[in-house]
What does this fold into?
Amino acid sequence: MLRRFHRVAISPDVSLTDETLNTIRSLSTKDILFLEERVGKFELEPEAFESIDALISGWCTILDRNFLSRFPRLKYVGLRATSTHYVDIPYLQSNDVCLTTLKSYGDRGTAEFVIETIMTYCRKTRMAAGCLPSEVGSKRLGLVGFGSVGKLVARMAGGLGIDVSYYHPSGPDAAHSHSVNFLPLHELLSRSDWISFHTPAFRIVLSSQEFELIRRGTQIIVTTLGLPFTIEDFSAFTRREHYRTVFDLCAAHQYVEDLTRLPNVEVVKFFSARTEESVRRAEQQLLENIYCYLRI
It folds into this structure.
């Protein structure tokens, strides 16, 4: 038998299709409450918070103890996201609140964005600057991180004849040793024409000393959730040499204004993982998680 929530709230960083919203409505006794402000600034009557037993949130909303404690009936948090970086998991556990997340729904969109960025530069960007286009097969791509997205980028790039290498802190991946080369980080940074970051969310993996290893003219692509280096170290790096760096909004969201002021930096104002197909996969997973909880 399928239970129903008393009332579902949705945070402002979650955008759902009408079909998914209608499905969630059918699983809630009271109508959905859409939270209109960022965390800590929600202007609701106490009774509204007290009626909510389920919260649908994204990765941008900070679900800390101060915020979560405003929902005394809360029993379920469903993230339309893969990262729990901003979630106070110990608080949820101590209050018997179920937390569900999504799996790799946006990998293909992110990987295709990386390949598109390389292709665009080699063709359109060079031609716009009065240069002949270059062939991507003549380039060396270094992947910092080799999880599901990194592996997909390696497979796509390898199909174009690009020389792909990767670095991962756990060392070489034996299952991919025949198709892509493992390199120590210092060697990968110093030899690559392109460097693409695919490291865990909000994890700093590059220091100012390692920036110095990147050779002049290298192109950099950043699609991680949060920056994989400090904004201070990156700012110093861009002032020192001529490089080009492309960020998607997932990586740049906290520092869009700071990054756009830097030389040779492009911030693409969308999430590379967000495609028609990834939205469908994400919402399907979200609903499956909700149904699973309500059947318990």
Summary: The mean pLDDT is 92. Residues 194 and 219 are 5 Å apart (CA to CA). The chain has twelve helices and twelve strands. The radius of gyration is 22 Å.
